[in-house]
Amino acid sequence: MRYDRSRLLFAVVFAMALLLEGCSSETTLQQPLPNKTVIEQAQQANDIYPPARPILMGFSQLGSESDWRRANTASIIDSAEEAGIELLFENAEQSQEKQVEALRSFIDKQVDVIALAPVVHSGWEVVLKEAKDAGIPVIISDRSVDVSDSSLFVTHIGSDFYEEGRKAGKYLLDKMSNEAGKVEIVELRGTEGSSPSIQRGQGFEDTLKDNERFHMLRSESANFTFEQGKETMRVFLREHGDDIRVLFSHNDDMALGAIEAIEEFGLKPGVDIFIISVDGTRKAFEKLAEGKINCVVECNPLLGPNIMQAVQELIAGRTLPKRIFPSESVFTQQTAEREVDQRKY
Ligand code: GZL
Ligand 1 centroid to 26 CA: how many Å? Predict the structure, then answer.
């Protein structure tokens, strides 16, 4: 296999360099340096990183539940290809257990770097410690992990979900500033225990909590999917019908499902029920332009270039910031027409 030969070549070059180095300096590296990553060992030896062979990267993706996720996967695969990084890509289809298995297989394969898009916020300490003990640096992609030891990952590249929730709340405050009376809200949350669902909900709630006009009538998880968004909105409408004035959906797929349920019920989405969604997919922009969604808070899935840049800098021994945020905006019906054809996903 191409990769084995290049690894062998790298090992021969590395061994020759060590022999030459050993003749000229005191430091020998017959025994691995304690608590040093493979990168630090090579740099300490002869600074021959980046190696002659392609970087080998393991990526654990959480699923393919939404248009956002599919665009995120495409961005990662395409960017690795463009950067000449050898990518081992595993899709866990919403299973944390499968993600842990994937990380352990990457460790067994002794990859140079691991990236993890964690399906939920907690439960990562043990496997991330295994990666650290194996000297393999970890990059967190998209959602965040809840770990007490921040040295378990090098950097987290992903959106500020709390701010996305705040942006949604601020839009609603502005939109309803001229309307009197109680505003009944229903919320479609994302995957239970995931950082975007927790933090979008908290940001939205914190922004509205000082204004007594706004009342959260119902809030349920619909797992970021079109089907569950439609079914859950059907239940909301059956039980609360015309009382509902606003829908806050944690992603576009659930909002698009809810739109179908609202129209089935005989109400006008975007008019009878204001809809605020998060992500910014092309389909959502089309509904924004049609007046069926009122506000889309962007969450950028195109993280591939940032991730591959970070990997190359990491392997070259540079220091990375602990947190890297993609750029994001807020879009309304006024800007939809101009934007819809720009959407890449
Ligand atoms: C957010 C991402 C979320 C999207 C959903 O960064 O994790 O997961 O908002 C996706 O569309 O399913």
Answer: 52
Which numbered atom of ligand 1 lies nearest the CA of 196? 1
**Spatial CB neighbours of 187, under 8 Å, sequence gap ≥ 6:** 201, 204, 216, 218, 219, 220, 247, 248, 249, 250
Residues 100 and 214 in one domain: no
Whole-number Å distance, alpha carbon 4 to ligand 1 midpoint, is 36
23: Cβ–Cβ under 8 A, 6 or more apart, which residues? none
Identify the residues whose C-beta falls under 6 Å from ligand 1. Answer: 65-66, 68-69, 142-143, 159, 196, 224, 251, 253, 278-279, 299
Nearest protein CA to atom 6 of ligand 1, as residue:
142
Same domain flag for 145 and 69: yes
Ligand 1, residue 66: give the atom nearest the CA. Answer: 12
Q: How many domains does the chain have?
A: 3
Which range marks the domain in which residue 274 is found?
Answer: 161-299
**Residue 18 placed within a domain:** yes
Q: How far is the CA of 196 from the centre of ligand 1 (A)?
A: 7
Same domain, residue pair 153 and 63? yes
Residues 295 and 305 in one domain: no
Same domain, 25 and 85: no
168/40 same-domain check: no
| 192-215: pLDDT as tens digits | 999 999 999 999 999 999 999 999
pLDDT tens string 98-124: 999 999 999 999 999 999 999 999 999
Residue 252 half-sphere exposure toward CB, CA atoms < 13 A:
26
Residue nearest atom 3 of ligand 1, based on CA coordinates = 196
CA-CA distance, 236 to 230, in Å (whole number)?
Answer: 10
Give 268's DSSP letter: -
Closest ligand 1 atom number to CA of residue 117: 7
Ligand 1 atom index nearest CA of 225: 12
pLDDT digits (tens, 9 = 90+) for 228-276: 999 999 999 999 999 999 999 999 999 999 999 999 999 999 999 999 9
